[in-house]
Amino acid sequence: MKIKEIIVVEGLHDKAAIDRAVAADCLISGGSAVSETFLKQVERAQRERGVIIFTDPDYPGERIRKIIAARVPGCKHAFLPKEEALANGDVGIENASPESIRRALASVRTEWAGTEERFTWLEMQERGLTGLPHSAELRDRLGQILGIGRCNAKTFWKRLNMLGVSRAEWEAAWKQLGSQAEPQPNGGR
Is residue 165 a contact partner of residue 118, using CB atoms and an 8 Å limit? Predict the structure, then answer.
């Protein structure tokens, strides 16, 4: 599988994992201290070939994703469920199997800069995605189905609108969740 876009990852081990899974060029952020020089490289990469942001499913990875997305519009986003990026208590793309990486890259989402709000905050509340003890768990499971990652309620809502989730995808995800929409034992964060 050859990837046209340049993939942004956090470190050398992440790049090695990408190389085991697909043929792609990577830009390495070098951790959470995202430099101006690095952001300029990402801007150029976006103009030339496009960019896929593929950071670790943890707080530093989300921070890097937000910094890059705020600076470089129109990036694509790949998300890996935390469970598929865990090894010995360490969370990172470098821990994922080649199959998990290929699946995440096959499900990239592109930012949409339009002003249309497809999903409302009220709908988030009505569906139990915020304000309830099991809301975090529900968002996590729904985010995995939709391929938009794990995040807090406000970020989840923004991603629904920003990453172009359609009504059909939304309803299909809820249907897939089915009876699992109820809180699970050990649920929530």
Answer: yes
Nearest of 113, 121, 106 to residue 154 by alpha carbon: 121
Six token digits for residue 10: 């956090």
Residue 179 CB partners (closer than 8 Å, separation 6+)? none
CA distance 119 to 116: 9
Please tell me the pTM assigned to this model: 0.78
Final residue belonging to a domain, choices 76, 111, 146: 111
Count Cβ neighbours within 10 Å for each residue of 114-151 and write b for 16 or more, e otherwise: eeeeebeeeebeebbbbeeebbbbbbbbbbbbbbbbbb
Number of domains in the chain: 2
Are both 74 and 126 inside the same structural domain? Answer: no
**What is the pLDDT, as a whole number, of residue 137?**
94
Distance between CA atoms of residues 163 and 110, nearest Å: 6
Helices (H) and strands (E) in the chain, counts: 8, 7
Percentage of the chain modeled with pLDDT above 70: 92
Specify the pLDDT at position 54.
97
